[in-house]
Amino acid sequence: MKNTARCVLLAFTIGFLSTNVYADGKFYFYREGVPADTPYQRAILIFHENTETLILQSKYEISSSQSIDSLGWVVPIPSVPDITSFDAEIARNYFNAASRYTQPGIFAIHDLFGIAVHILFVLSFLSILILLLFFPILKKIGMSKEKWHKLANISFYTFLICFFVAFFSGAFIPFLSKQSSGEGVEIIKAGKAGIYDVKVIKSENADAILDWLKENNFNFNENDTDTFADYISRDWCFVVAKVQPESGTKKDKVSLDGLVAPLVLKFDTEKAIYPTALTATIGTETQILLYTLSDNKLDCQERLKLHAAQEISSAKFNPIFIVKRKEEADESLIELFKTLPPKMFICKFKDTLTSEQMKKDLVLENASDNKPYRKTKIVW
To answer: For strand 196-203 and strand 185-193, is the pairing parallel, antiparallel, or unpaired?
Structure first.
């Protein structure tokens, strides 16, 4: 009986400790990270009544001898846009919100395993208590002392094994499962948008565009002529943005997590479009993360994998709720979300594309249905 009493005392102690082991074992949040070694773009594309707003971010990599104001973008779009920007810190809040609303469905093998262990843990613990507290009654109804000891030992060792399995799986499994105007180029618009010095240019000649970009220190060459010529044939224009923050601008307003502050472009277009052809000229694979907000569920024609689709309140993306201090929210974005319908479909697309796959821009169409979809992620 003394040995059994010690076992029960140990069981109580282990039972108390085990509540701490499982305190945070049931919460899953799959946040999109910036990949370490892969060129990376992410965007929120809002499409409503033939108007698109593109919140665009890209990962940058510069040498230690270069400053961040050596960065620049060239973005082709089908019509002259309204242009703005906001802080990199606010952008992170926007993309975290989009990630949160499009979380994958989690099928956790570890949960099923843990439930079984917990059941055995509780049953063995209760068995020890019953054997101890009701020993006189069990003896009267014919249980021998040898059988009592045998059941007590089985219960205790089951309890002990379950505890250690639960402890080590809880402690270690998460680690196992664990991003000058050149001749023939028209400057349609010029100005400042957040940290960017921005010009919108247009031309009827691809060589003239390339000469202008080279004069302004953008790394394009004659090999890119066909790409620019294709956009020019469709009467597109080009947003040219250079990072030029004002003196004293805080670092987290310029860049965060290796991503420079977003460029926000609002323009007219018949279809939702995500331009990729200029990115293809880099010649490397690029990971693209694209969230869309639109009146209907969108289809990417399998160019990017669909990870989630569901109806959502558009107010959840209003800067008033995203930005901590209302005075820091861009007025044009506040007005944008006021004009959107109360309910829209959010879709999440993600994949790594080769330069060959990016030679054609992504054009998004209405999907054949508006059924919700959520990718399942199997984890331990």
So the answer is: antiparallel
Compute the Cα dihedral for 46, 47, 53, 57 and give only its sign.
positive
> What is the rounded distance in angstroms from the CA atom of residue 271 to the CA atom of residue 22?
49
For residue 319, the surrounding DSSP H or E stretch is helix 319-322
Query: Phi and psi dihedrals of 309, rounded to 5?
Result: -155, 130
Token pair 């208590």 in the structure block, residue: 129
Residues 128/152, Cβ–Cβ less than 8 Å: yes
At residue 24, does pLDDT exceed 50?
no
- Residues 126-144: what's their mean pLDDT? 80
User: Cβ–Cβ contacts within 10 Å for residue 225, how many?
Assistant: 15
For 261-291, give the secondary structure using H, E and C.
CCEEEEEECCCEEECCHHHHCCCCCEEEEEE
Where are any strands of DSSP class E within the chain?
A: 40-48, 51-58, 72-77, 82-85, 105-108, 185-193, 196-203, 237-243, 255-256, 259-260, 263-268, 272-274, 286-294, 298-299, 305-313, 343-353, 362-366, 373-374, 376-379
No. of H helices and E strands in the chain?
A: 11, 19
User: pLDDT tens-digit profile of 151-204?
Assistant: 888 888 888 887 777 666 554 444 443 333 446 899 999 999 988 999 999 999
Which three-class secondary structure state does DSSP give residue 204? coil
Sign of the four-CA dihedral 90, 96, 99, 100: negative
**pLDDT tens digits for 47-65?**
999 999 999 998 876 555 5
- Cα 190 to Cα 30, 83, 196, 198: the distances in Å are 40, 10, 11, 6
- DSSP for 67-129, written as a single string: -GGG-EEEEEESSPPEEEE--HHHHHHHHHHHHHHTPPEEEEHHHHHHHHHHHHHHHHHHHHH
The Cα–Cα gap between 374 and 310 comes to: 8
Pairing outcome for strands 286-294 and 40-48: parallel
Reported confidence tier of residue 255, pLDDT bands at 50, 70, 90: confident
What are φ and ψ of residue 291, in 5° steps? -105, 135
**Average pLDDT over the chain, rounded to an integer:** 79
Q: 229 vs 74, 204, 223, 233, 362, CA distance in Å? A: 15, 8, 11, 6, 18
Distance CA 297, CA 337 (A): 18
d(CA 318, CA 118): 43
